[in-house]
Automatic annotation (TrEMBL):
<keyword id="KW-0378">Hydrolase</keyword>
<feature type="binding site">
    <location>
        <position position="93"/>
    </location>
    <ligand>
        <name>Zn(2+) 2</name>
    </ligand>
</feature>
<dbReference type="InterPro" id="IPR011650">
    <property type="entry name" value="Peptidase_M20_dimer"/>
</dbReference>
<feature type="binding site">
    <location>
        <position position="191"/>
    </location>
    <ligand>
        <name>Zn(2+) 1</name>
    </ligand>
</feature>
<dbReference type="InterPro" id="IPR036264">
    <property type="entry name" value="Bact_exopeptidase_dim_dom"/>
</dbReference>
<comment type="similarity">
    <text>Belongs to the peptidase M20 family.</text>
</comment>
<feature type="binding site">
    <location>
        <position position="384"/>
    </location>
    <ligand>
        <name>Zn(2+) 2</name>
    </ligand>
</feature>
<dbReference type="InterPro" id="IPR010158">
    <property type="entry name" value="Amidase_Cbmase"/>
</dbReference>
<keyword id="KW-0862">Zinc</keyword>
<dbReference type="GO" id="GO:0016813">
    <property type="term" value="F:hydrolase activity, acting on carbon-nitrogen (but not peptide) bonds, in linear amidines"/>
</dbReference>
<feature type="binding site">
    <location>
        <position position="82"/>
    </location>
    <ligand>
        <name>Zn(2+) 1</name>
    </ligand>
</feature>
<dbReference type="InterPro" id="IPR001261">
    <property type="entry name" value="ArgE/DapE_CS"/>
</dbReference>
<protein>
    <submittedName>
        <fullName>Allantoate amidohydrolase</fullName>
    </submittedName>
</protein>
<keyword id="KW-0479">Metal-binding</keyword>
<feature type="binding site">
    <location>
        <position position="93"/>
    </location>
    <ligand>
        <name>Zn(2+) 1</name>
    </ligand>
</feature>
<feature type="binding site">
    <location>
        <position position="128"/>
    </location>
    <ligand>
        <name>Zn(2+) 2</name>
    </ligand>
</feature>
<dbReference type="Pfam" id="PF07687">
    <property type="entry name" value="M20_dimer"/>
</dbReference>
């Protein structure tokens, strides 16, 4: 099967067709989990699975599965990603991995590939985080609890239970979506890089070896609100000055305690009471740190806490923080990585082995099976916007690498 190739014209049509679903006047896509746009995208995908003659199944977490040669006895080689988007998102984030997985199954079926292991494509529910992120893959990995399901809500206060009920679904059924690890032989996710590395190097593919973990805090520095005109500078207890000092310390923290894969971001700041003529009494801000090494993440967390405590004491501020989320980093399976690399080399592709700085459903799947990821370049590194795009020739290369890698794992030798 070394000369087998996907039908690029068909894949291109699928990408273009799906990109019209949920499109708004801003040209961005609006397919948040359990929204009307998400429902329309899922119905379209279900139709494509049925048209391909695949076995179609939806589990309790609303993950949508298409299967080829499935008999319930042999473990499957699965592929997939997600069709939901961030508000105003692009046409490829998540969707590309689902559509390439579908195309792999169609190509194998049309060419009557003799499979030692069945093939499966999965559209995971709510990867983008309307209700917390990676809901569908966490359900498959057995990471959900009744409490986490009942407490999940979006920024508008809509609960996951309500959103699923509006679709006629029972949210507690997500607990039954837990997948037996013995039912999976391997999992591959093909995804746009969402960063600039491949594009700047002029490479069509990257082979992912590790996926970042992260911790996200809400930090509060409490000071003393006061009149901006009558309070001398040396008499102020100003939490914004503490925030500014901490912001200036981030590069030092990374240099001393991080790695080349470390990222630290203050992405949201709120000052209270928020008047132009008032020294703020509180600075509340987000602090998110990512790395592919759990020990590095721990070291950065300790160092950040020490730095915040120290500057708060010097400035007479009170320091508090809440942990909003923690995701463990994972390493892709060396055997699956080697399989992808071997197929890339056989195809004559130039590639790099690289980390993923974004979280993906593969992180959840790594808890229950061997995993690997294939990246294709993002033009100018742009993603989560209507400007997100990848050249067709790079998509075709990534799709054929996925095909050959999946068949190398699944085809009878």
């Amino acid at each position: 099967m070394t000369d087998l190739k996907i039908n690029m014209q068909r894949l291109q049509q699928d990408i273009n067709d799906l990109a019209q679903i949920g499109r708004d006047a801003d040209r961005g896509l609006h397919r948040r989990a359990f929204s009307d746009g998400d429902r329309a995208g899922r119905e379209w995908f279900r139709g494509r699975l049925e048209a391909a003659g695949l076995d179609v199944w939806q589990d309790g977490a609303a993950n949508l599965h298409g299967r080829l040669d499935y008999d319930g006895k042999r473990p499957v080689v699965a592929m997939g990603s997600h069709l939901d988007t961030v508000p105003g998102g692009g046409p490829l984030d998540g969707a590309l991995g689902v559509l390439i997985g579908l195309e792999v199954l169609r190509t194998a079926k049309e060419n009557a590939v003799d499979l030692a292991y069945p093939l499966e494509v999965i559209d995971f529910t709510d990867e983008e985080g309307r209700f917390g992120g990676m809901f569908g893959s966490q359900a498959m990995a057995g990471k959900l609890t009744p409490e986490s399901i009942s407490h999940a809500r979006d920024l508008e206060g809509v609960t996951l239970v309500e959103a699923m009920a509006n679709w006629g679904l029972n949210a507690d059924d997500a607990l039954a979506a837990r997948r037996d690890p013995h039912s999976l032989h391997a999992f591959i996710e093909t995804h746009i890089e969402q960063g600039p590395v491949l594009d700047r190097r002029g490479l069509s593919v990257g082979v992912v070896e590790a996926i970042t973990g992260l911790f996200k805090w809400e930090v509060r520095l409490k000071g003393q609100p006061n009149h901006a005109g009558t309070t001398p500078m040396d008499m102020r207890i100003d939490p914004f000055q503490g925030l500014a000092e901490f912001g200036g310390e981030i590069n030092r923290l990374i240099e001393e305690h991080g790695s080349p894969n470390s990222r630290a971001t203050i992405g949201r700041v709120e000052l209270a009471p928020g008047a132009a003529n008032t020294v703020p009494g509180m600075a509340t801000f987000s602090f998110e740190v990512r790395d592919t090494d759990e020990k590095v993440l721990t070291a950065l967390a300790h160092a950040a806490r020490r730095t915040l405590s120290s500057l708060a004491r010097r400035r007479d501020l009170m320091f508090e923080f809440d942990v909003l989320s923690e995701i463990d980093p994972v390493r892709c399976d060396p055997g699956v990585v080697q399989t992808i690399e071997a197929q890339a080399e056989r195809m004559g592709l130039e590639y790099i082995t690289m980390p993923s700085g974004a979280a993906h459903d593969t992180q959840s799947m790594s808890r229950i099976t061997r995993t690997g990821m294939i990246f294709v370049p993002s033009l100018q590194g742009r993603s989560h916007s209507a400007a997100e795009w990848t050249n067709w020739e790079d998509i075709e290369t990534g799709a054929n690498l996925t095909l050959q890698s999946a068949l190398a794992l699944a085809a009878r030798q």
